[in-house]
Amino acid sequence: MEPELSVSRSIAASPEAVYAALTDVTRMGEWSPENHTNEWKDGFSQAEMGARWVGHNRNGDKEWSTEARVSQLVPNERFYFECIAPDFNDFHFANWGFDIEASDGGCTVTEHWQDLRPEASKASSAISGVTDRVEHNRLGMEATLAGLAQSVEG
Questions:
Q1: Distance, CA of 154 to CA of 151 (rounded, Å)
Q2: Which residue has the higher pLDDT, 150 or 90?
Q3: What is the CATH number of the domain that holds 94?
Q4: C-alpha pair distances (Å), 26 with each of 1, 52, 56, 131
């Protein structure tokens, strides 16, 4: 993936603990300022290649849902997923991912985001209310990693 944006944070927890937390997508709402709940779909109940879930998001008074599908999974090292629009023939509009690298005293987690929307739709804030998606995501990724660290370190 060629990320448009990457944010890293050192976390004083094992790669195993971080990976277990991240791949339980039902917990993402604990850390993310935008995503508030997720539920597995199509009979999936855990992260595995191709597993799908629905994510529910909010920004101010705007709320929307997206569907995601696991695209890369390397235990204790990598968790990547694609955001898709099932109503539009599974149109793949973004990639998200987490790399976990062991370090002294824990690990470094890097969150990645790649925007695959057509240029014409990037300027629209109709669904989310977000006018500067790159800056919005950077702040959200920093908050997500801070919340994740607080959750797994203590």
A1: 6
A2: 150
A3: 3.30.530.20
A4: 24, 12, 11, 27
